[in-house]
Predict the structure of Chorismate mutase.
Amino acid sequence: MATNSLTLESVRHSLIRQEDSIIFSLIERAHFPINSPTYSQSYVSNSIHTFSGPLLRFVVKETEALLAKAGRYANPEEHPFFPEDLPPSVVPPHNFAKFLHPPAASININKDIWDTYINKLLQLFVAPGDDGNYASTAASDLVCLQALSRRIHYGKLVAEVKFRESPQEYEPAIRAKDRDTLMKLLTFEKVEEAVMKRVAKKAMMFGQEVTLNKDGNHGKYKVDPSVVSRLYGDWIMPLTKHVEVEYLLRRLD
Ligand SMILES: O=C(O)C(=O)C[C@]1(C(=O)O)C=C[C@@H](O)C=C1
């Protein structure tokens, strides 16, 4: 959809569609055990002399450099995890609709998303163990991180739509830099409850074992639906709202 015709309904529709990408990415990652060397400082530092840090960081940084050349970060909906030293795009520029207020470009909370994903989320939906598939694990993590980052930063568009629909409601709190009031104004508890129920239902549908026996494998899911609901309730929606507040605070700059 063209961004100049966005409405609260259409941005919510995009968030609903992005749930599919997030849940599928979690299912793919849960296929591997935790594989902790992927995240350890020492695993690659001894062998890749030009790089220090965990394998996941290596994979994400190198992939982002390639995608930057292909023009990915020219799209205001995409945010790199390692914005420093990215190479310029080599493809012809695309004229993306300028829907967001320009200071939006300064908001990138990928560092928080990275820390939350590695330190809090992973252990909730991935089994312990080590099967040695560290590169594939990092590739799956990259897909999860990109899907989460896109969804959470989509809060900028959601906030812009809300602001345009009722600027008079938001302006006093923006001028007063009143984060608590902004948070209250942009929160819809009923919508959040529906999101948590829907993602659990999707996790059941997308993550069920499909068998050809009549009895099937009922009640066994690739990712626990209640965990997916918790990821949304405790982290994904709060981080999205954090982006919405940060965006609104800059909306009158
Ligand atoms: O749908 C909205 O109004 C949003 O701002 C998105 C979202 C979410 O992250 O899903 C965040 C805040 C609202 O309380 C409800 C849902």
Q: What stands out?
A: The chain has a mean pLDDT of 95. Residues 173 and 181 are 6 Å apart (CA to CA).
